[in-house]
Each structure stands twice: as structure tokens, then as C-alpha cells.
Amino acid sequence: MPDARRKRGSRARARRRLAIVGISAFVLVDLGLVALALTREPSGLAADAQPAASPAPVPVETTAEPEPTETPTAVAEAVPPTRLLSAVDADTAWRAEAGTCTPGTPGTTPTLELTTSAGDAWAPSSVSTTGSPAGVDRLQATDAASAFVVGPSGSTCTPAFSQTFSGGAEYRNYPERLAASWYVARTAPDVVHSPSGDHEAPCPAVVDLAVVSDAQAGVLCSDRRFFRTGDGASTWDAGTVVDGAVAVTAVSGRFLVASVGAVDCDGTAVDSPATTAGATSTRVGCAPASSDTPGSVALSGGGGSVWLWAGDDVLVSADGGVTW
């Protein structure tokens, strides 16, 4: 009997220990759950209280639009005259179209025209000689009977000298007179030929030439600068700019320049170029005729008169270009 009681007591104590262990384990699990609940961030509350941080914005480089700048308007260069005029006096003058010459191609014989009625009527004559002239680079008249031209000739377009002493009834080629003449060949606009020979021009391109004597002359360059020489083109002055200049002439020992586009002249302005670089030209007069076609304005002085050929108009000034 005592053994049976001992066995039952042992089993009872074992059950009590198991119960205590089970209760203890339950309590430990419960405490762990509570601790986990207290430390874990509930889903959704953080997002509501503080929005999730967005990625930092990536800086975008922006290129500032350049400020619009004014594009300077290029000023067109002056071109060699397509027509030439040589005045003798208030009634008499000669004129010609410059013509063209292409090496290797037969050129067209140029035509001179003579007026003795202040431009009311013109008599044409063909400059036909053995030198085969094909254009006119310089025209110079002495009177109603005599005038000469220097211009390209033959198949090579080399300069030639042709002259008439009969008012255009006949022309002859005078190669020996070419060397003693002033001219600027269209094939070499950077060279001025004077009676002393070939000389370097004061600019890359001469467009017009005005002669006073064997030693004295003036040239107009394509950039509208006017230069003088007093020693046969060996040296030149510093040059002066004449806005809108298109042609030049010499009358009574002084130079005159024709210019277009002057704000104070509704026509062709006639100026006396300054003798000092940087100085302003002196306005002589304003001829009521002009032309927008490059090269179509010619100016010439002779016997105290000044002639202007612009477009279809021929005007004469008896007072040196002041009135027309």
C-alpha cells in the first residue's frame, strides 16, 4: 500500500511541475508578444503622419536663351562703272558702255557716242581698229573731234589704246601711246598704270579713276575710300571715306565724287572729298537724278562744267556741280 501511495504522489507532483512549466511558458510567450507589439511601427500611421521622403530632385541644367543681337547690315561695295562719260564743256561730251571681255572669246566692238547739244542728241560710232578692242576701261575726250579709249582687246583682253581724230569717223590703234596713259585695267584692279609705269594701288580694287595731270590723279576704291597721288601713283595719301561713293572726276584741278543714298539728297550727291583722313567731305550740290543699278552712275567734268549720267538721265551743271 505505501508503494502505491508513493507512486500516486510522484505522479501528482509531476503533473504539478508540468502545469507550472506550461503556465510559465505561456506567460513568457505572452510577454514576448506584448513587447513586440510595443516596438513595431503600426502599418499606415507613419505614412499618414509624415509622407515618405521623395527622391531628391535632380538639378536640370538650363541654357539661357541668348539675347537677340542686331546683325549689322553689310554695306555693298562700289563696283566699276558700267558706263563712262567724258565732258569737254557745257555742250560737248563723249560716252560709252564699258562692255565685257572674256579671254578666249571674241569680244563685241565697243561704241562711243558724241553729243554737242548738252545731251539732247547723241551720234554713235564704232571703235573698230586692228587692235580689236572689246570694252572701255577709260574714256578721255579732248574736243568734239578727238577722244581716246583704253580697254581690253583681242582674245587675251589685254589693255589697248584706240583714238579718233575725226569725231568718230575713224579710229586707229596706237599701242605706243598706251604706256604714256593713266588707266586701271579690269583684269588688274589692284594696279594703277600712270605715265611712269605700273604701280600698286592703295587698295585691293580700284573702281574709278580721275586724272588731273601726268603726276596727279585720284582713285575711288570699292570700299568707298578716295585716294590722291601727286607723283604718278608712286605714293598715295591716307585716303578718305565718302559714304555711298560710286564715281569720281576731276574738274578745274579739283576732285568731285558722286554718291548715292545720302539722306539730305534726293538724287545723286556731289561732294568734294576731304584732304585729311577722317575729315568729312564737303557737299557741293545735289543732282536730281540717280540710279539704284550698281555701276550705272557716271560723273565727268570739263571746261568748268560737270556732267552726270544716271539711269536714263544726263544732267549738266554750269557752276561746278552746285546747281543742275
Written overview of the protein:
- With 324 residues, the protein is α+β, with helices and mostly antiparallel strands.
- It is built from 3 helices and 21 strands.
- The chain has one domain (83-317): 7 Propeller (Methylamine Dehydrogenase, Chain H).
- β9 and β10 (197-200) form a beta hairpin.
- Residues 1-66 and 68-74 have low confidence and may be disordered.
Task: Describe what is shown at a glance.
This protein is of the alpha+beta class and 324 residues long.
Largest sheet: 4 strands, antiparallel
User: What is the number of E strands?
Assistant: 21
CATH structural architecture: 7 Propeller
Order of helices and strands: HHEEEEEEEEHEEEEEEEEEEEEE
**CATH class category name:** Mainly Beta
% residues in beta strands? 25-35%
Q: Which outline best applies?
A: globular
Helical proportion?
A: 10-25%
Strand order of the largest sheet: 1-2-3-4
* Total number of domains: 1
Radius of gyration: 50 Å
Low-confidence stretches: 1-66, 68-74
Count of helical stretches:
3
Category from helices, strands and their pairing: alpha+beta
